[in-house]
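Researcher: Next entry in the queue.
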Amino acid sequence: MLDAAGSSFAKVVKTTVFLKDMNDFPKMNAVYAEAFGENPPARSTVAVAGLPKSALVEIEVVALLG
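Model: Structure for this entry, 66 residues:
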């Protein structure tokens, strides 16, 4: 979706991570670090009771365009 909007992972400035189970935080954090590298964007992580389609994680991003 970032590409379609004319953006990229490098232009992400803020994320919100929704986790169904906070015990999954270490695994999610490792994948997050791989995706965003040494200078990751600001992040909030929230535990939720449920996500669409029984997902375990959902990540919302705010990115710059252009």
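Model: Residues 9-63 form a domain with the 60s Ribosomal Protein L30; Chain: A; fold (CATH 3.30.1330.40).
Researcher: Noted, moving on.
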